[in-house]
Amino acid sequence: MWSSWVAAIGWTLGLALIDGWQAGVAARLTTTDEYLHDLGKVADIPTMLRTFSDHILTDQSVFWTTHVGAHPPGVFRLFVCLERLGLGGGGNVVGELAGSVVERPARRNPGAAP
Predict the structure, then answer these.
(1) Using CA atoms, how far apart are residues 90 and 87, in angstroms rounded to an integer?
(2) Is residue 37 part of a domain?
(3) Rounded distance, CA 12 to CA 112, Å?
(4) What's the 3-state SS for the chain?
(5) Is 9 domain-assigned?
(6) 113 within a domain of the structure (yes/no)
(7) What mean pLDDT do residues 61-75 have?
(8) Contact (Cβ atoms closer than 8 angstroms) between residue 42 and residue 68
(9) pTM
(10) Above 70 in pLDDT, residue 108?
(11) 15-53 pLDDT per residue, tens
(12) Residue 51 structural domain
């Protein structure tokens, strides 16, 4: 199972990093069609969750971008929380998420080889 996860992450990052970190990863998260573009539209999380479906259709005066409106609000809520903690921006968000994914298993097995 871990080998599949490592292979998938490696392949995805390998494709993204062809253009370099800034252009291939960080800048892609901040385009007008991605999650980070809509962070400023969220005044508070409970209201965002309660009215999420009101902003999916693009004929509304205020609507979610492509990625936000096309998916359930869970990942967007994660990005909002990270931004509120001061971890906004494409490179910071990806770096922090990757760090937490790696750190958690390492804390479970402190004596294991890296």
Answers:
(1) 9
(2) yes
(3) 26
(4) CHHHHHHHHHHHHHHHHHHCHHHHHHHHHCCCCCHHHHHHHCCCHHHHHHCHHHHCCCCCCCCCCHHHHCCCCHHHHHHHHHHHCCCCCHHHHHHHHHHHHHHHHHHHCCCCCC
(5) no
(6) no
(7) 90
(8) no
(9) 0.63
(10) no
(11) 888 988 888 877 887 788 888 889 999 999 999 999 999
(12) 20-108
